[in-house]
Design brief:
This protein is mainly β and 111 residues long. 0% of the residues lie in helices and 42% in strands. The protein contains no helices and ten strands. A six-stranded antiparallel sheet has the order 6-3-2-1-7-8, with no helix packed on it. The chain has a two-stranded antiparallel sheet with strand order 4-5. A hairpin with an 8-residue loop joins β1 and β2. The N and C termini lie far apart (41 Å). Part of the 50S ribosomal subunit.
Length: 111
């Protein structure tokens, strides 16, 4: 069986500043480092920290524990409006050049 994937747009992109609205990291903000499209998840800097166990290697014979960012579901993230600094919903509308661009539903400014 071939796995079918739906392609749809997300309300966040790499480089956006986002706020976590639910889960263990609720209330934290950070910059999106990576968006995992096929899993509907994102990796946010400093949010959802997990402990990763590293095996011993020639360079690191002891092995180690490393704190890294885990992914978080996109539905738990909201874009932070650069004008107000608050979390906001986003929409898309045509800019003056006729191209679709995201805007803040709270302030009405383009993001």
């Amino acid at each position: 069986m071939e796995k079918k994937t739906q392609s749809h747009k997300f309300h966040i992109k790499t480089g956006d500043t986002v706020k976590v609205i639910s889960g263990n990291s609720k209330g934290q903000t950070g910059v999106v480092q990576k968006v995992l499209v096929e899993k509907d998840r994102a990796v946010v800097e400093g949010v959802n920290m997990i402990t990763k166990h590293l095996k011993p290697t020639a360079a690191n014979p002891q092995g180690s524990l490393e704190k890294v960012e885990g992914s978080i579901h996109i539905s738990n993230l909201m874009v932070v409006d650069p004008a107000t600094g608050e979390a906001t919903r986003t929409g898309r509308r045509l800019n003056d050049k006729g191209k679709l661009q995201r805007f803040s539903k709270k302030s009405g400014n383009f993001i």
